[in-house]
Amino acid sequence: MLVIRPIQDSDLEDLYVMAQGAGKGLTSLPANRELLAKKIRRATESFNQRSAPEAGMYLFALEDTVLKKCVGISGIEARVGLEEVFYNYRLSTTVNASRELGVHVRTPTLNLNNDMTDTTEICSLLLSDTHRKGGNGLLLSRSRFMYLDDFGRHFSEKVFAEMRGVSDANGQSPLWDALGRRFFDMEFSEADYLSGVGNKSFIAELMPKFPIYLPLLPADARAVIGCVHDNTAPALRMLQAEGFNFNGQVDIFDGGPVVEAFIHNVRTVRESLNRHVLISRKSVDLDVPSEERVMVSNRSFRDFRVTTLPMHCINPDTVSVPAEVAEALQVTSGDVVRLAPLKDGGHSPIQSMASRSA
Fold first, then answer.
1. How far apart are CA 265 and CA 270, in angstroms?
2. What secondary structure does DSSP assign to 226-237, as a single string?
3. Residue 158 half-sphere exposure toward CB, CA atoms < 13 A
4. 159: which strand partners?
5. pTM, full prediction
């Protein structure tokens, strides 16, 4: 069984191994035991409400209960830009015109801004190569939206994600080579790493504050602005299916797009519903296709748990939960759980029930 739960100190080694395998590009989870341990401690303090709500950072582990190991991770940053300044480029248009000369020129530009400050970010999605199948990535990513909605007082109404931009097999970014390298005496991987681990003061000190006129950049640099890395394309499609849209901002290093949505408009939230738990002693085949499964959340802030069940377990007022699943979720008969579709497509029973409940 695969279960989403808060990350624990014991997950450090599994997380380190996954971070090593991720290679370049996932700067929020560097292959550095000390930094990863620091992130785990911060997440633990957030779940236990030992930090200010706006300073919270929540990391969720995907545990394989048979192997007893962490095989994936995803995260939520409650608010960005409150301690370290958060930067993006906004794609804009500068218009220059002369009626006398009959000239009207529109020039695309990049403008440095801090517009995402105080906004919730979903981040740090990483799944082990051994478990990239059967909707596991969907479970890891979409379960966060259930948490965001159930505990909305800790988060902003809007949530965003920075998508990894285009870079080659050696980690070289066309945008960085054309722009960032002109102002930073370092490689793209080093600058991206420093930014990812929170050392962002150099950006304010060295980045140009004036608009960047895109026609002055090489064609290969212009071509990647707002585009994602091939490995990130599936994650972008998943977020778009959830209702996320490009907001006109890009990463200042590789030009990857920023996508956003209001939490109440996210598909997982809109199509979710609550049911009372009915513990079932009957044997249930849990190994069904992902399109026939639903996510089940125990709705606990501190001990958040999510796994999946076959759709046929859903009843008009209750959900039949096998004893072993109830134990994994830490729920008993009568508890209220939250259900949401795992996969897109079709008109599932849970969608029908959600429509009737609306």
1. 6
2. T---GGGHHHHH
3. 15
4. 120, 261
5. 0.91
The count of other CB atoms within 10 Å of the CB of residue 279 is 16
Residue 141, SS3?
Answer: helix
Residues annotated as part of the active site: 229
Q: Which two tokens stand for residue 238?
A: 């998943």
Candidates 273, 313, 310; CA nearest to 292 is 310
The amino acid at residue 327 is E
Tens-level pLDDT at each residue, the chain (358 residues): 999 999 999 999 999 999 888 765 566 788 889 989 999 999 999 999 999 988 999 999 999 999 999 999 999 999 999 888 888 999 999 998 888 888 888 999 999 999 999 999 999 999 998 998 889 999 999 999 999 999 999 999 999 999 999 988 777 889 999 998 888 777 777 777 777 666 666 776 777 888 999 999 999 999 999 999 998 899 999 999 999 999 999 998 899 999 999 999 999 999 999 999 999 888 788 888 888 999 999 999 999 999 999 999 999 999 999 999 999 999 999 999 999 999 875 455 565 554 444 4
Phi, psi for 75 (deg, rounded to 5): -145, 165
Compute how many other C-beta atoms are within 10 angstroms of the C-beta atom of residue 185: 9
20's tokens: 């090593």
Alpha carbons 41 and 64: distance in angstroms, whole number: 22
Can you tell me which residue has the tokens 């994602």? 228
Residue 146, SS3 per DSSP = helix
Two structure tokens written together for 260:
């956003």
Longest Cα–Cα distance of the chain, Å, equals 84
Nearest to 161 by CA among 149, 136, 144: 144
Q: Where are the beta strands (DSSP E) in 130-217?
A: 158-162, 212-213
Buried b (16+ CB within 10 A) or exposed e, 299-313: bbeeebbbbbbbbeb
